[in-house]
Design brief:
The complex is a heterodimer. Chain A has 13 helices and no strands. Chain A is globular, with a radius of gyration of 24 Å. The radius of gyration of chain B is 21 Å and the shape is globular. The chains are: A mainly alpha, B alpha/beta.
Chain lengths: 305, 327
Amino acid sequence: MTVASPDVAARLARLRVEHAGAIRQARLFVWTFARSASAMVGLVLVLAFLVLAAGGPSIVPYPDDATGAMNLAARLQPPSGAHWFGTDEMGNDILTRVVVGTRTSLWVGLIITGVAALIGVPLGVAAGYLGGAVRQVIMRVTDVFLSVPGLVLAIAIVAALGSGVLNGVIALSLVWWPGYVRLIEAKTLTIKHEPFVEAARAVGASRRRILFIHLLPNCFSPLIVKMSMDMGLAILAAASLGFIGLGAKPPAPEWGAMISVARTYMPTWWWYAFFPGLFIYLTVLGFNLFGDGLRDVLDPRASRS
Amino acid sequence: MTALVEAVGLTKHYAVRHGWRRHGALRAVDGIDLTVPEGAAVGLVGESGCGKSTVARLLLRLVEPTAGTVRFAGRDITGLDELGLRPLRREMQLIFQNPHAALNPRRTLFASIAEPLVIQAGLGGAALRARVEHLMDDVGLPAQFLWRYPHELSGGQKQRVCIARALALEPRLVILDEPTSALDVSVQAQILAFLAELRARRGLTYLLISHNLAVVRQVCDEVAVMYLGRIVEHGPVAEVFAAPRHPYTRALLAAVLPPRAGALPTVALAGDPPSALELSRGCRFAPRCPLAEPVCRPTDPALDPVSHDHRVACLLARRAPASPSTA
């Protein structure tokens, strides 16, 4: 230990010098982000959403209510001290069901945007970097997908696969990627002609090196921004599928499915539809504000136009 | 002096399409012959859009030529693919007009300068680091800059970093594509002096592309004048500047503001150059040429010698005696 510690200290000092630029840049990012009130609201909402999703069944007052317990004596009670968000027609605690539903929504959003990026980014890079016939084919197929409203196409796919959360996620993932192809293709096309790429070619860089070291890292900021904003939209789309009965099935605590059942109890038992709706609203708002804030930090030129 | 890089009949046409229909070709570079002797500094001047930068990229094989050959140190490199070119990339480097765009914004200066050494020499660790620090020292920048990002530097500093990257492989030929036109005037002089000193110190060969005649005069031994994809005059700097033979060269020189109080340049040319899409037959300068005669319209002049090392592409140049530079 006594021999090693000066060595470790020296290595740390060197790391600090070599990453001074990166550290300065990260500080600037944090400062710019923190300066924007709406971005901070977004961050707080997203963090709260993550905490609820992580805590899930273990932090709610009535864990059994999430799995379809019945307590008919307590059905359709208004918000009170015991049931902050009231109860539904089975006597289940709505707060419990809404909070447990957070986890479903989170993984639904993550998978949809993740799969969309996994499909869209390679296609976009191929179209932008290779050009020619490859680009024509990829972009025309993308245009076809973009010309059909995504949700309508997803409904058709779910109808073919059969309803359920997983099928809904599959369907939405399959219609979500065209935006990523467009984004990455446009970005690749502009970066491809930048002098720094030409400089890399002039020193003999291989195509793979140019792709992974010069093109992709420069596509990263708009990609992160789009993914964070799409999280909210994907959650909304999954809830829409649940609402029309093609996503999660009612006993499962999913926001869209809850509202779907609750709409027959409107307006007298308003709290049944109101709280799941409020959670959808806050989540979508949170991810949008967060993505907006990220864009101001990572991609400042795109923010005002 | 032997030719280090030589272009013969080098041509680049860009296909112009409207939708699916092919709409003719943009003749960016249209059959030029250019020789850059080893150890010399050759200037390539001309107005914007005349194909200067395309020539640079053709010579470096960054752009595929439509026709013609490029020879480097006597060897035909026109047919080589990326792999075949890689060893040659050590010998020839490019410095860009805009240093702000020539460095990857996501990489530290160390990564940018080290890139050629990593690719070409497979260096790493302490050896790489020592070499990069030495290069930084060579271009007069402190070593702690290595860990910064490009946006933290001024234009002149970035251009020095680009120079360090270009010098990393100890090239024989450096093509400078308007190396100072994106820089402040005060920094321009510094960079030019530095480039001249580098050339003297390392025995480099320069091809300097510029629209700034004063820069060419200061740095170069020879000058080639381009107009619409062709070289119209090529000769020693002293001779071309003192006694330009091509009417276009004369107009270019006359357009420079004379360094006298109240003096204005004589207006020599009117109008814009015709589009490279629709070139007429015959001499392509004839439509704007103050001396044009009927013979210029049908006949396309070749680049013919008027003296030992001075060549001009003008039918009238050999007829008329050389006139003084104010033309």
